[in-house]
């Protein structure tokens, strides 16, 4: 028989030996901790006993120092009292002795001496015949030294040693004291099915840009052979819900690299310096797990522009940003480390972050177009039973302009929930369309009862939108008109295209959109002679478009070809306050006047169209009052005979 030990047996023995060593170490730590705890209790008891021993000694009555001075200075034959004997306690700074009254009775007394030198008092007592003595209290002097200097040091050393053992053994909240300035493990656990580029739809350009990061992490030798340096950092820019985090996870899954995910706000704390320590800890963890990807979501939470505030900057955020800049400069691409970040506010990021050598590349992840929406819907519809998957999803994709990937995923899930609620076996187009309307306008409000006057007002309002859209050549864009209340609204008009689907728009296109938006208000004024509050949302949307036309796109002859407004008009930390002086007050006044003129012309244009098609307006309003919703063949029949005008709306006088 061979004496060779099987490899698996040797490995098992080594594991058992390491387990025994860890158990012995844990047992030793527990024993030492118990010993330190008992010694700490003993030291505290000794300290309390020393404090009791150091209390000043008192005997007899407590005599006021002023009275003692008067008795000592008294030279009359009959003094109120005379001090026969006194002892000075040097450590207690007290005088104790015997006080003799004129009748011969004696009484013990104790007096606290002031901090000043009591030489005058002692001289008066000696002159009056008092027997004086001094007690040096050597024992108290020794105990005082121990209690004030030695014992506190020993107690603190014992306490720190006990805390160290508790932290080393993972002692609950004690270990949090050390981990406060760290992030803990930010590494995402391995998924049973890693996310790959196959799980991403409608982001072909972003996938192409990020494929280089994947290829570099998977095989850096090809880049080294060509002398090429991959990007250190990639910034994903786009609106919320467009898949920036999903893309970062897909890169890590494709490259089979470690993935560290954190939000920018997690770096910022009240205490200055904690955020910088957390940045160092994150990069240390990533270096130890290379190849790795660090993903910082909402980068603007920590990377905002320095010195952009009205007052002083945020010291903690600026120190954290400085440390992030240093760490990104402190690693080379050869270490197998790449930083990905996401933000929807690239305009407020610090310029130092955007320079070459840090975030070398910006990848835009925008809202998908109609083809992209179809791909996303097909991706999320996998494994779900649809009546006509190809036709239904194509129709929904055309009817959801402006939807992000997250919105479309929610749409498919809402449709499945509606099918379950109705106990259906498959998801129909009606479920998908109802889910889209629930996301856009909210669920149907069945408990909202309208009066006859409100029903006619809403019917003419929505019919006005549809008639003007058809007359201006947008009939194919209208897919549904309804007076059913949803969310906070009391009616809606659904279209299959929107402004978000066009990256380049002419002025005539925007003017058509303005006329359609104000058509509901124009219909109310034409039929009832006055507007209603139902036009609030239309006015808000039309005002924003008119301001963009005149202030952003330079399409106004009055304002001129100049950009007065920015795309995002929100004030950021006072920066816009400091730069608003670039626009003169007369220019802003001309802009306001031009916006008002554009809206008035659009309203008059819509009114002119409605006057020309008044019979169609009345027929569609009556149909809405009767059936509440027009769509499909019914809507096509109602709009088919409306003559389409030129795209640029004519202005009514």
Q: What would you say this structure looks like, in words?
A:
With 653 residues, the protein is of the alpha/beta class. The chain folds into five domains: 7-53 and 142-179, no CATH class; 61-136, 2-Layer Sandwich (Signal recognition particle alu RNA binding heterodimer, srp9/1); 197-364, 3-Layer(aba) Sandwich (Rossmann fold), CATH 3.40.50.300; 370-440, Helicase, Ruva Protein, domain 3, CATH 1.10.8; 452-639, Methane Monooxygenase Hydroxylase, Chain G, domain 1 (Up-down Bundle), CATH 1.20.58. Helix content is 51%, strand content 11%. The strands form three sheets. Strands 1-4-3-2-5 form a five-stranded mixed sheet, with helices on one face. It has a five-stranded parallel sheet with strand order 7-8-9-6-10, with helices on both faces. Helix 12 crosses helix 13 and helix 18 packs across helix 21 (585-612). Residues 4-9, 171-178 and 569-579 have low confidence and may be disordered.
Question: Could you list some keywords that capture this structure?
Answer:
alpha/beta; 5-stranded mixed beta sheet; 5 domains; Signal recognition particle alu RNA binding heterodimer, srp9/1; 5-stranded parallel beta sheet; 653 residues; Rossmann fold; single chain
How are the SSEs ordered, and which strands pair?
Blueprint: H1 7-53, E1 61-62, H2 65-73, E2 82-89, E3 94-100, E4 106-112, H3 119-127, E5 131-135, H4 138-168, H5 173-179, H6 204-218, H7 221-226, E6 233-237, H8 244-255, E7 258-263, H9 274-288, E8 292-297, H10 315-329, E9 337-343, H11 351-354, E10 359-364, H12 370-380, H13 389-398, H14 405-421, H15 429-441, H16 452-471, E11 478-482, E12 492-495, H17 507-517, H18 519-528, H19 536-552, H20 575-579, H21 585-612, H22 614-627, E13 629-631, H23 633-639
Parallel strand pairs: 1-4, 2-5, 6-9, 6-10, 7-8, 8-9
Antiparallel strand pairs: 2-3, 3-4, 11-12, 11-13
Helix pairs in contact: 1-4, 2-3, 4-5, 6-8, 9-10, 12-13, 12-14, 13-15, 14-15, 16-17, 16-18, 16-22, 17-19, 17-21, 18-21, 19-21
């Amino acid at each position: 028989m061979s004496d060779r030990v099987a490899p698996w047996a040797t490995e098992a023995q080594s594991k058992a030996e390491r387990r025994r060593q860890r158990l012995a170490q844990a047992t030793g730590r527990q024993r030492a901790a118990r010993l330190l705890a008992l010694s700490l209790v003993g030291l505290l008891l000794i300290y309390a006993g020393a404090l009791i021993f150091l209390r000043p000694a008192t005997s007899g009555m407590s005599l006021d120092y002023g009275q003692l001075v008067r008795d000592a200075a008294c030279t009359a034959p009959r003094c109120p009292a005379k001090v026969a004997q006194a002892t000075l306690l040097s450590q207690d700074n007290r005088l104790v002795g015997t006080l003799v009254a004129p009748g011969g009775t004696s009484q013990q007394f104790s007096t606290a001496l002031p901090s000043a030198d009591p030489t005058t008092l002692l001289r008066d007592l000696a002159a009056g015949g008092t027997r004086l003595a001094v007690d040096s209290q050597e024992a108290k002097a020794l105990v005082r030294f121990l209690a004030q200097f030695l014992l506190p040091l020993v107690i603190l050393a014992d306490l720190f040693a006990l805390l160290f053992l508790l932290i080393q053994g993972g002692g609950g909240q004690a270990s949090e004291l050390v981990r406060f300035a760290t992030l803990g493990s930010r590494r995402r656990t391995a998924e049973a099915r890693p996310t790959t580029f196959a799980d991403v739809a409608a982001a072909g350009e972003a996938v192409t840009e990020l494929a280089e990061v994947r290829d570099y992490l998977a095989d850096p030798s090809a880049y080294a052979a060509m002398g090429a340096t991959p990007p250190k950092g990639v910034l994903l820019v786009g609106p919320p819900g467009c898949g920036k985090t999903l893309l970062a996870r897909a890169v890590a899954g494709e490259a089979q690299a470690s993935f560290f995910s954190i939000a920018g706000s997690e770096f910022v704390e009240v205490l200055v310096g904690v955020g910088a320590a957390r940045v160092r800890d994150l990069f240390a963890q990533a270096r130890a797990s290379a190849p790795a990807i660090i993903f910082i979501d909402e980068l603007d939470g920590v990377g905002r522009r320095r010195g952009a505030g009205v007052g002083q900057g945020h010291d903690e955020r600026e120190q954290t940003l400085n440390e992030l800049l240093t760490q990104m400069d402190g690693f080379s691409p050869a270490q197998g480390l790449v930083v990905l970040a996401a933000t929807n506010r690239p305009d407020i990021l610090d310029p130092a972050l955007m320079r070459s050598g840090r975030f070398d590349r910006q990848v835009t992840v925008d809202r998908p177009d109609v083809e992209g929406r179809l791909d996303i819907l097909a991706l999320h519809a996998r494994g779900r039973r649809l009546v006509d998957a190809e036709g239904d999803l194509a129709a929904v994709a055309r009817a959801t302009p402006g939807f992000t990937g997250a919105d479309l995923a929610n749409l498919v899930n809402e449709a499945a929930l509606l099918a379950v609620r109705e106990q259906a076996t498959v998801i129909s187009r009606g479920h998908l369309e109802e889910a889209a309307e629930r996301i856009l306008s909210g669920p149907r409000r069945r408990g909202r009862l309208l009066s006859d006057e409100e029903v006619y007002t809403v019917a003419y309002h929505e019919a006005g939108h549809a008639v003007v859209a058809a007359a201006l050549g947008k009939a194919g864009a209208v897919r549904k008109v309804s007076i059913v209340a949803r969310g906070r609204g009391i009616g809606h008009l659904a279209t299959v295209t929107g402004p978000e689907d066009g990256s380049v728009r002419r002025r005539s296109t925007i003017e058509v959109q303005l006329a359609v938006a104000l058509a509901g208000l124009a219909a109310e004024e034409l039929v009832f002679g006055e507007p209603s509050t139902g036009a609030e949302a239309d006015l808000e949307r039309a005002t924003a478009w008119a301001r963009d036309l005149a202030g952003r796109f330079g399409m106004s002859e009055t304002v001129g070809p100049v950009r007065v407004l920015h795309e995002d008009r929100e004030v950021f930390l006072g920066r816009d306050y400091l730069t608003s002086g670039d626009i003169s007050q007369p220019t802003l006044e001309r802009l306001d006047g031009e916006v008002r003129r554009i809206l008035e012309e659009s309203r008059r244009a819509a009114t002119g169209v409605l006057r020309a098609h008044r019979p169609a307006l009345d027929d569609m309003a009556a149909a809405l009052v009767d059936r509440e919703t027009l769509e499909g063949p019914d809507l096509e029949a109602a709009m088919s005979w409306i003559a389409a005008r030129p795209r640029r709306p004519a202005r009514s006088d």
